[in-house]
Amino acid sequence: MNEFVRLCSEHMGLSAHQWGDGSKLAVLLHGMADDSTTWRRFGQTLAALGYRVFAPDLPGHGRSSAMPGSSAEEFTTAVLDVLPREPDLAVGHSLGGMVLSLLAADVRATRTVYSETLFRPPPYGDLTAGELADALASSVHPVGETGRWDPKTTAGFLHDIGGTDLTPDPMTPSLVQYAESGVISGSEAARLRRAGLITRSVPGADHAPHVSSYDEFLSSLDGWI
């Protein structure tokens, strides 16, 4: 099964892709400026392994509604409204990993993977959300075959969590993937290990390992899927 669905919640309309109809459940959250189609290959792999895969377009991405200037709480609540609870596996890439870390206690995944996720985003000081949106629009580029992206929606979320420590609670078994992009430095990987998380590098990968280095990305998930 490869299905596109439109979901309506109390807060907004979100779109999603689904793959497979197995007995296990996986939730995939994409990165900034991308959408659920970036997970197509991985979704099909998981479906072949017996998963039912749910991958939403985050607010302001793909075919989901925009929420310009929304707070982090509004952004994450809109996502939480449509996510199935207690999946066997939850994976978040970059921005999706930030969202997943904020929702972890509500989603209650059996195993979680954070791919190239910045857990300590910088404070933005005097930079307004509008100025941050302009900066994102000029510097961030999609890695997949994404459609629409609204930087103002993302900027509202990021501006709100700037300076926040999003390090996941190790009570949920969590794997952190890091590539050669520098998003997660060696010292940061060491800090995460001390915090009780498992870290694995993805050799040769850029910021989107599931796109640039798929075989290595998949190998780093050995024992997790």
TrEMBL record:
Gene3D superfamilies: alpha/beta hydrolase. Residues 27-213 form the AB hydrolase-1 domain. GO terms for molecular function: hydrolase activity. The keyword Cell division does not apply. Keywords: Hydrolase. One of its GO terms (cellular component) is membrane. This is Alpha/beta hydrolase family protein. It comes from Stackebrandtia endophytica.
